[in-house]
Amino acid sequence: MEELKQLGPRRGVPRGVQALFLEVQEIRRIRARMAQLQLSPQQLPYRDMERLRQFRRDVLKAIPIGIIAIPPFTNFLVLVLMYFFPRQLLIRHFWTPRQQLEFLDAYDCRRRASHPAVLRALARAARSLPEAQPQQLLLQLCDQVQGGARPHLAQLLAVRSLFSGSLLVLNRLQVDHVRALSQVLFLTPHLPAFLLRHRLRSHVLEIQHLDHALLHLGLGQLSEEELRAACYLRGLNSTHLCQAECQAWLEQWLRLSCELQASEASLLAHSMVLLALPPRQPPE
Fold this sequence. Notes:
The protein is an all-alpha fold. The chain has two domains: 11-89, no CATH class; 112-274, no CATH class. It has 14 helices and no strands. Helix 2 (15-37) packs across helix 3 (46-68), helix 7 (115-127) packs antiparallel against helix 10 (175-184) and helix 11 (193-217) packs across helix 14. 23% of the residues are buried. The model is unreliable at 1-13 (pLDDT under 50).
């Protein structure tokens, strides 16, 4: 194993296994450093924080296949399932480049399918606001996004107070509203309401901590792959966009996220829908 780590890719060792092994080694290094310096995840540099987040999601995804593999004589069944359901059962290290594009598009289609429900719930909540002017601003914002136009940063900041002290704060949203937002963040909607709200807030704040760390690092330090992954996490399907488009979008997102307080996490969650670009068809 040590030889594999030192020499990198070797003949006869599957590329996914190599990538996973190196990832585990990196996670061990990060956790050792956290323990030594008594750091919380929020105090880590951007890349370390993002690795921990992604590794945790990979582990959760691998749990079902691990459970299936526990009984004796189920290895063949596991291999068959992984072959026929690679998107659902295999973690990203074992995806081919072509599968990665296909699977990210498939996940984004699922995410976009929940956008209309989020916008309908947001408009319904806006009509319940007691003051006419904020109500009108929010309804105009929903109409603008439904018409395919992306709002400006100033428009989102103009309604920020509504998402921290009214019906739009996360812990006061209707259950169907929270379920739709959870699907935007790839979270299961099939949980009790209090758990849905807790998980949604936790994941949104995690993204905001990542945003602060990314701002400190600087967008110019990201590779193209890191840049695309950062956009995708925040609601933008970056698979068919150029690098300049991804960077411009992420710059706007960071200006919004780093301006908001933790109490305004609801606006950040909704911005994953409000700032999402209309889907672009892949080139022929």
